[in-house]
Amino acid sequence: MTFLSPSTEASPAGDQVLAPYGGGWKARLSLEIALRDGRSVASRLAHDGPLRVQKLLWPEGPRLAHVILLHPPSGLAAGDSLSFDLRLRPEAELLLTTPGAGRWYRADAPATQTVSVAVDEGAHLEWLPQETILHDGVSGDQRMRVDIGERASAVGMEVLVLGRRASGERLTQARFHSRLSLRRAGRLLYDEQSRIDGAQTGAAALGSCHVSGLLWAVSPDPLPDDLADALEADLDRALEASAEHGGAGEAAAIGGASRVEPHLMLVRVVGRSPQTVRGALALAWARLRPLLRQREAVPPRIWMT
To answer: Cα separation of 92 and 86, whole Å?
Structure first.
């Protein structure tokens, strides 16, 4: 994911790029959410550089706070470095998203993004950024580590778009490394690393698709044995409907779900449309949320704009 807001600058070639600033933007944000008098509030907030949060909102009631992350430069370019530390104190609840698609731009020097999250006992996190678009010539590293308490719960979503196909762009020169580590009660639960180096060959591995999505969910209690089958049935119906109404380009989307271990569910979708992939993952989130927090899913309002 990439944190953003809509402001960009156009290059002579028509690309959207960041204006240089001292060899790259450097930004750090630290946010702590705590439950006070039945309301999840920001108990600590500190930032340095262009990485911020909008004010907290409570559209679903005081227990679950919604927050939007903003990165005013609108994406990452050469030499940029973003660091975000998030902690949920016991029993606090947070849904986090972004205002639109994030971007990693063409760069002659690496950009980096590091996210560190701690979800204390009884707390609940929903990490739901919108999609990330990799431009041709990208050079970047992103890492995310999530430490989840034994009686805490968390769900996260990541949608990666390889190139701007609407503009005819493919990744012919790219270097992008990504790592996701999930820990529960101090034990490594899941560790995934992905790499794109040189010419983009990932589309072949994705069945000629260029959009991939992952939804992960960690539960304090063992997840039902038949949950993966139910999720796959939901995905099949949603993707078939998108193919019927979205044209031939949508037909390549496929999805699957796996209960990797009793407390961890993974849902993957690949396709040719960011909207289709994200919509399918959002459907999986809607099924998982009542199991994790006994609450029906309410999509963030920013998704509708």
So the answer is: 12
